[in-house]
Structure formats: structure tokens, C-alpha cells
Write a structure and sequence with these properties.
Length: about 300
């Protein structure tokens, strides 16, 4: 009986590890997509390739402003997304005088990459994007707007991005909480509380061998205190991937000047699409204040 119980336990453990491995490989697999030419209603957009220390040649669109001195905003998408989801933001920003860069992170869209690394290699792409814009518009102010993974990428790496304004939307504070929350939601109200404490540590153990990433490299909350830019943190009050208390904890660690925007009723969704009027009433004045100051 004891041998049978032991054998069953071994089989269950093997099945659990196998399931975790399969899911981990799926989540980190490249989210490639054919993007095509820039949209016709994004005037002046130019296709660009930017070499990154991640090893990728990141693909994107550079949209110069019609005049000079209006500053620039770099748009960074979330996990398993690409630059197409940022076009609405790009149109509004360009209409208000900003130059805009929107691009695909490595292993996303049209940018090559072996695995999604949840912020480690993507932070190198973010730094390459800033360098591109600084070179294209020397002397002008540059802001970055990152969604989920994109926001994490602005903070991770050797140091947070050296920009003049930073908008963080629905950004996870550390990979431990991010994994646990997503497992709990994915497994449902019954299985989630039961299996999440077992599966989350297993996922963390797979990060180094699969992605060559240590869990302690994926903790934006440990990096945000070194940010040099004014920060706007936005998060949905119904977000179950990055709950309000976690978003607030990230905000609390940020240096001044900073602002917090709890988006009433929003989950882990595109906040601009969820409430575009309130979104631009909040985000646009922030970017204008720090990137287009009065003469």
C-alpha cells in the first residue's frame, strides 16, 4: 500500500512538472505576427529597424512630428501583443505635436527572438528605442509609455530608462505576484486557491533553464525607486492580474514627482480603449507638462 501511494505521488509530481513545463513553454514562445506597412491614417510613419542588445533587430514605426520642439513618446506594448495595439495612441499623440515611436519587442510581432523573457531582454529593447529617439531628435524631451510587460521593461535592466516622463499602465510589481495571480485566475475559483501554491514555485524554477532569467531579475518594484523621470502609474480597480494593492505598492516606491490614477471598474485591459475620454484627460496633460513645457 505504501509503495502504491508513493508511486501515485511520483506520477502526480511528474504530471505536474510536465504540465508546468508545457504551459511555461507556451507562455514564453514567440508571439510572432505579420504587421505589414504603416497604417495610411498614421501620416509620415516610417518603417524602422533598431539593433538591440537583446540580440534582436526590433521592428517598428517612427512617426516624426510636423514641427520641432514638441518632444517624443515611445509606446511599448504588453506581453504577446505588438505595435498594432498602439496605433490609436500614436494617432492622438501625433495630433498633439509629439513624435512617436511604436515597436515590437523581441519575440513579438515582426521582431525576431527565441523566447519572451517577461522584461529582462525587453528592457534592452526599450533602451535601444530611447537611444534611437535621442539620436533622431537631439535635444528634445522624450517620454515612454509602457503597458504591462512594456511598463516593466522601462524599469528593469541596468537602470530605469533615462527619459523625461514615464507612464506605467497595469505593471506587475514582481514576477512572484504576477505568476500567482495569473495562475489563480486561470485555474478558476475552485482549483486556483488549491493548486496555485504548488504551481507558482514550479514556474519560478523553470525561469532560469528555459529563459535564462532569474526571478530576482523580474522585480520592477525593486527598480522604480531609481527612476529619474516624473511617473504616472495607472491601473484598473478591478484588475485581477495586477490588483490595486500591488499597483499602489509599486507607486509608493516611486520617487517624486509622481501621480496615481485608479481606473474605476477596469480590469487588466487596454485602458485607452476602456475609457478613451478619461484616458486622454489624464495622460495627455501629464505628457504635455513634462515633454512640451511652455517657452
Amino acid at each position: 500500500m505504501a509503495i502504491g501511494t508513493l508511486l501515485l505521488a511520483v506520477l502526480l509530481a511528474a504530471g505536474l512538472c510536465g504540465s508546468v513545463l508545457v504551459v511555461g513553454l507556451q507562455l514564453s514562445s514567440p508571439a510572432s505576427a505579420v504587421i505589414g506597412p504603416p497604417p495610411a491614417d498614421l501620416p509620415g510613419a516610417q518603417a524602422v529597424r533598431i539593433p538591440s542588445a537583446s540580440g534582436s533587430q526590433i521592428r517598428g514605426w517612427w512617426v516624426p512630428a510636423t514641427g520641432s520642439g514638441g518632444g517624443a513618446v515611445i509606446l511599448m506594448h504588453g506581453v504577446r501583443a505588438n505595435r498594432l495595439g498602439l496605433v490609436r495612441r500614436a494617432k492622438v499623440l501625433r495630433a498633439h505635436g509629439f513624435a512617436v515611436l511604436l515597436f515590437d519587442f523581441q519575440a513579438h510581432g515582426e521582431s525576431p527572438g527565441r523566447r519572451i523573457t517577461f522584461g529582462r531582454l525587453e528592457a534592452l529593447d526599450a533602451a535601444a528605442a530611447v537611444e534611437f529617439v535621442r539620436h533622431s531628435l537631439p535635444g528634445e524631451r522624450v517620454g515612454a509609455l509602457g503597458i504591462s510587460l512594456g511598463g516593466a521593461a522601462t524599469l528593469l535592466g541596468p537602470a530605469p530608462l533615462k527619459v523625461d516622463a514615464l507612464v506605467l499602465e497595469s505593471v506587475y510589481p514582481d514576477i512572484d505576484a504576477a505568476l500567482a495571480n495569473r495562475l489563480r485566475v486561470g485555474l478558476g475559483p475552485v482549483l486556483g486557491p488549491l493548486f496555485t501554491p504548488l504551481l507558482a514555485p514550479a514556474f519560478k524554477l523553470l525561469l532560469p533553464p528555459i529563459l535564462d532569467v532569474r526571478p530576482d531579475e523580474l522585480r520592477p518594484i525593486e527598480h522604480i525607486g531609481a527612476a529619474v523621470a516624473p511617473i504616472l502609474v495607472a491601473s484598473g480597480t478591478a484588475d485581477d492580474r495586477t490588483p490595486p494593492d500591488e499597483a499602489r505598492a509599486l507607486f509608493d516606491r516611486a520617487p517624486q514627482p509622481k501621480r496615481f490614477w485608479p481606473v474605476s471598474g477596469a480590469g487588466h485591459v487596454d485602458l485607452e480603449r476602456y475609457d478613451p475620454d478619461q484616458y486622454w484627460r489624464t495622460v495627455l496633460p501629464f505628457l504635455t507638462e513634462y515633454l512640451q513645457p511652455p517657452d
